[in-house]
Amino acid sequence: MFYAIRHFTRYRYTQPVSQSVMEVRMHPRSEQRQRCFTFQLSVSPRARIFTYTGHMGNLVHHFDIPAQHRQLTIIADSLVDVDPPDPLPDSLERGAWDDLERMIEEDDYWDMLRPSHFARPSPELKEFAAELGFDRDVRDRDPLSLLRKLNADVFEKLQYVKASTRVDSPIEQALENRSGVCQDFAHILITLVRGVRIPCRYVSGYLYHDAAHHDRSRDGATHAWIEALLPELGWIGFDPTNNLIAEGRHIRTAIGRDYADVPPASGTMKGSAETELQVRVRVTRSEAILPPDQEFAADEEWSRFLEQDQAELFALQQQQQQQ
Fold first, then answer.
1. What pLDDT is recorded for position 298?
2. DSSP state string for 142-160
3. What are the tens digits of pLDDT across the range 117-155?
4. Distance from C-alpha of 250 to C-alpha of 230, rounded to nearest angstrom
5. What's the distance, CA 94 to chain centroid?
């Protein structure tokens, strides 16, 4: 299935800032059953954009705006084809835990086994694990069955509440309030899974929503889930926010140890202004391979955002010339 994705990010500043330096991770990955056919990144004020590939294979775009500006707008357009994965077995054979240990010994999965910035043990997590019965012998189940249960348990015990936490909130806040966003669900599940020596990583991307699926996560935003390494199957995605096995609707943008490795946009600005952030995401089905500028050419709503940026930038330049 082809998906057309538009990811809009705008930073507004209360005072003009003299410089912005940014990194953007919005380019969908091309691997396995997913292929990104087109990607276009637009920045206002205009900037020269550079690209590099990180050590985990994520495509990172970065740019510098050295001139004064009061807002920064980033629009990423993508066209991606995603094939649904093969059906998973109900469970794995006996000896799967031993096979997994051999895989860990033969390859380097250290980063995906040890605690990371947002995915780390805590007293609150220990209490949560005991509530789930996760403090007993987890190896009574094979690794796949265990992951299915954990995915469902986290889904059932925690409520999805929009804006209930921030991007830098620790998992303890979500555990105490029993609510969070997809990032919190992913961090909690990652920490539990790593605790039983299953390599686990964070996935940042998008989820296509339609009327046929009753997802808890909201449309119009990025999404996050986890991938765990299993013998015979490789990396398998689990979405605890919606109690799903990652499927053809999940579009992968970046992978890392946790959110700290893969924020969609991050950077710094030079100035003393406060910042207001606005983010909008739209994922739609596409019937043909079209360049992003054709796919969205008639989108008046999005065009107005860029027109506003150019008008405000022109006004700021005029003001500087009069001083």
1. 42
2. -HHHHHHHHHHHHHHHSEE
3. 999 999 999 999 999 988 777 888 999 999 999 999 999
4. 19
5. 34
What confidence tier does 166 reach under pLDDT thresholds 50, 70, 90? very high
Summarised one tens digit per residue, pLDDT across range 90-116 is 999 989 999 999 999 999 999 999 999
Peptide bond into 240 cis (omega under 30): no
Cα–Cα distance measured from residue 247 to residue 210, given in angstroms and rounded to the nearest whole number: 14
Residue 129's identity, in one-letter code, is A
**Region of residue 295 (left: phi > 0; alpha: psi -120 to 50; beta: else):** alpha
- Alpha-carbon span 315 to 63, nearest angstrom: 23
As given in the structure block, the two tokens for residue 257 are 């140890």
**Higher-pLDDT residue of 203, 210:** 203
Ordered structural domains, the chain, with CATH: 2-82+264-322 (2.60.40.2250), 96-247 (3.10.620.30)
| Sequence-ordered strand ranges (E) for the chain | 2-17, 19-24, 34-44, 49-53, 59-65, 69-82, 159-160, 179-180, 200-207, 223-230, 234-239, 244-245, 250-256, 265-270, 275-286
Instruction: Report the residue count for the chain.
Output: 323
